[in-house]
Amino acid sequence: MNGANVRKTLMAIGLVSLLSLTLSGAPGLAQPDVEDAPRQGLPGRRIGGGTRGEECIAGETPLIALMPENNLGVTTAAHPSLLFYLPQSTAVREVEFVLLDTHDQLIYDTTFQVKGDSGIISLSLPNDETLPLLAKDENYHWYFSIICDPANRAQDIAVDGWIRRVDLATTLTNQLDNAAPLERARFLYKESELWHEGLTILAGLRRAQPNEPTVAAQWTQLLQSVGLASIAQESLIDLPLVTDSNGLISETL
Questions:
Q1: Which pLDDT does position 202 carry in this prediction?
Q2: Which of 14, 115, 118, 222 is spaced 20 to 30 Å from 54 by Cα?
Q3: Buried residues in 190-207 as b, exposed as e (16+ CB within 10 A)
């Protein structure tokens, strides 16, 4: 996708003006006292809808990004995974992912096809030369769009948010190493505010142990805590492993 189309996509969801904001600060998660970390709110959109493209999806649940209410997901990973709920589609659809750096410069974009099934998917950013390591303590702005009409990007259904890479405090490393997976997930998202790590661990556990009540309860609790209870019972769907020319992988959890 060329630069002109990227700009059209951003304009289509009415957020171009927000890209000029100067962003500073974020949760100080590398500090031992995370309770005093500032909770920064950033402009974003967790729930897609309200556009003329809604007729290309079916059902009542819209496109949803699994991220905190302040639109900022924090991670220690240089190439993290992001989770999205895909609504049922009326046909095979093209999906686009765009990533901008802290200077609002395009550093990555890709498109791939998804089937019409609804459910939660995981997108892993490529660990190769197509995408540089996420710099620490920088805010990256991403956009995820269902392309309803390639000839008219104003019809896109889109969500957008932010991701920030931080260091994990060395005082926390032993606690995590000695914890069972379920406890590690709880500690990461609740105590350390490392949203992406905690969410990914829980999603993997839920997929591996779909009938385990403690896993299901913690997954539901996490989503309820950020106002996403409506998708707590949705399936983690199988998608064909898709790697396009830009290297973005759409994978099952």
A1: 92
A2: 222
A3: eebbbbbbbbbbbbbbbb
Three-state SS annotation for 171-233: HHHHHHHCCCHHHHHHHHHHHCCCHHHHHHHHHHHHHHCCCCHHHHHHHHHHHHHCCCHHHCC
User: In the CATH scheme, what is the code of domain 3-168+230-251?
Assistant: 2.60.40.10
**pLDDT-flagged residues of the chain (< 50):** 3-4, 6-38, 240-253
Query: HSE-up of 184 (CA within 13 Å, CB side)?
Result: 17
Q: How far, in Å, are 120, 131, 150 from residue 100 at the CA level?
A: 24, 11, 21
> Would you state the structure tokens that stand for residue 253, as one six-digit string?
């959890």
Annotated domain spans of the chain: 3-168+230-251
CA 225 to CA 216: how far, in whole Å? 14
Q: What is the pLDDT of residue 50?
A: 52
**pLDDT in the model for residue 189:** 81
Indicate the pTM of the whole model.
0.78
What DSSP string describes 10-60?
A: HHHTT-GGGGG--------TTSS-GGGS-------BSB--SSGGGGGB-SS
CA 114 to chain centre: 17
Distance of alpha carbon 62 from alpha carbon 53, whole angstroms: 11
Q: Are 113 and 94 in contact (CB under 8 A)?
A: yes
User: What is the rounded CA–CA span in Å between residue 191 and residue 169?
Assistant: 12
What is the distance between the terminal CA atoms of the chain, rounded to a whole angstrom? 27
Integer Cα distance of 111 and 89 in angstroms: 16
